[in-house]
TrEMBL record:
Residues 198-316 form the DNA mismatch repair protein S5 domain. It comes from Acuticoccus sediminis. This protein is involved in the repair of mismatches in DNA. It is required for dam-dependent methyl-directed DNA mismatch repair. May act as a 'molecular matchmaker', a protein that promotes the formation of a stable complex between two or more DNA-binding proteins in an ATP-dependent manner without itself being part of a final effector complex. This is DNA mismatch repair protein MutL. The gene is mutL. The keyword DNA damage applies.
Length: 320
């Protein structure tokens, strides 16, 4: 297939976990209330994401797997106020370029249909059976790009990246029910409050000791649960941040969270915290990188200051 498709694909889909992220974001964009994720062999053998969202009309299935076809970008003005997570129309074609992709979908307006893309080759649209919603299946990821396959880590570490990705996405949308079946082991995250989701994802130990945070200043709202960094966890990163319900791995936010913790944290400890940031979408730019993991705030200093102050205050006021 076209080299350019494969190069572009590598930007969006670095590893199985990035494919999982794109597919779950599509399900969230489709208004799903329940999302089931299945992965096998670290996601290289199989990734399946099934949702009960609005589905894709049969007449639009072919478009959905074509590059730069998105149903989500209505006009240029929409660019500065993007509420949906995907908007580049790159995920499905990118995955189809390097794997065996199948999409089965049913829109409320009609019957179910399916389409496949294998190593960039698009198959015919065929009738299928399904309730309203969409199932995307990815088999043999990177079979069409063996070089990329060689760069993957062990099944175990790819599995753990998939698990981390789903957990972050589950935290980002507590009102959506998730299941994750990883190598046959099933975990459930029932729909609930942010607090309940934090408990389900990060554990009762975290939730019981966590300090709640809920403040709003200059139109920026922060909701968070702050764990005390005393549990001595090994990993370098246990901070979870969401901007307008979007998963972000943003330096500014991560640094602000660490700075907020600085006074109470020994050198070898790491903060464990989850924070939902909500603000006017026009004041934040998410169109930065294909992976869409970082964000640019119009007033970065204000956001940073708010996070640092809020965390410091909450930790200082917390009962010892
Ligand atoms: P983007 O999300 O950037 O629009 P994608 O390649 O991820 O691009 O998806 C292409 C299009 O396929 C989307 O714009 C949407 O119309 C449709 N689509 C993909 N996944 C789903 C889904 N789970 N439910 C409904 N529509 C979907
Ligand atoms: Mg998308």
């Amino acid at each position: 297939e076209r080299l350019i498709d494969k190069i572009a694909a590598g930007e969006v889909v670095e590893r199985p976990a990035s494919a999982v992220k794109e597919l779950v974001e599509n399900a969230l964009d489709a208004g799903a209330r329940a999302i089931d994720v299945t992965a096998e062999a670290g996601g290289t053998a199989l990734i399946r994401v099934a949702d009960d969202g609005h589905g894709i009309r049969t007449g639009e299935l072919e478009l959905a797997v074509q590059r730069h076809c998105t149903s989500k970008l209505l006009d240029a003005a929409g660019l500065s106020a993007i509420l949906t997570m995907g908007f580049r129309g790159e995920a499905l074609p990118s995955i189809g370029a390097v794997a065996r992709l199948s999409v089965v979908s049913r829109h409320a307006d009609g019957d179910a249909a399916s389409i496949t893309v294998e190593g960039g080759r698009v198959g015919p649209v065929e009738p299928a059976a399904r309730a309203i919603g969409t199932t995307v299946e990815v088999r043999d990821l990177f079979f069409a790009t063996p070089a990329r396959l060689k760069f993957l880590k062990s099944d175990r570490s790819e599995s753990s990246a998939v698990s981390d990705t789903v957990k972050r996405l589950a935290l980002s949308a507590p009102h959506v029910a998730f299941t994750l079946t990883l190598n046959g082991r099933r975990q459930e995250f029932p729909a609930g409050s942010p607090r309940q989701r934090a408990r389900d994802v990060l554990g009762a130990e975290f939730a019981d000791e966590a300090i709640d945070l809920d403040i709003e200043r200059h139109g920026v709202r922060l909701i968070g649960h702050l764990g005390l960094p005393t549990s001595g966890r090994a990993s370098s990163q246990y901070t979870y941040a969401f901007v307008n319900n979007r998963v972000v791995r943003d330096k500014l936010i991560a640094q602000a969270m660490r700075a907020g913790y600085q006074d109470v944290m020994a050198r070898d400890r790491h903060p464990v915290a989850v924070m939902w940031i909500t603000l006017d979408p026009a004041l934040v730019d998410v169109n930065v990188h294909p992976a869409k993991a970082d964000v640019r705030f119009q007033d970065a200093n204000a956001v940073r200051g708010l996070i640092v102050t809020a965390i410091r205050r909450a930790l200082a006021e917390a009962p010892a």
